[in-house]
Specification:
By secondary structure, the protein is an alpha+beta fold. The protein is built from one helix and five strands, in the order αβββββ.
């Protein structure tokens, strides 16, 4: 393979990774917003943060990126509680929210 072809393949992989990461982040943000809205909570900073990225095999045996996103929410407006969302590819594997007061 020539240097130009190698560079082109590398650029294509970087572009795919960037696009896939933005799509996964947007999905995690939508899930965090929906979970907070469902329980009348406030999603703080209106953002999620990718804290772990790895490859894992799905039920079909194929390797997919597994991402863990962290977010913060508040139940009283004056405190911060942690939550996390784990995406395996585009499938939601888990959504965890620290215990909070029900109002």
């Amino acid at each position: 393979m020539t240097e130009a072809a190698t560079l082109l393949v590398l650029l294509a992989l970087v572009a795919w990774y960037w696009y896939d990461s933005m799509r996964a982040r947007e999905l995690a943000l939508q899930l965090g917003r929906a979970a907070c809205a469902r329980d009348s909570l406030q999603l703080l900073d209106d953002t999620v943060q990718c804290v772990r990225l790895r490859f894992a095999r799905g039920e079909d045996g194929r390797l997919k990126l597994k991402r863990t996103y962290r977010f913060e929410f508040s139940d009283t407006g004056t405190n911060r509680r942690d939550g996390s969302i784990v995406l395996h590819g585009t499938a939601v594997e888990s959504l965890y929210m620290e215990p909070f007061l029900v109002q």
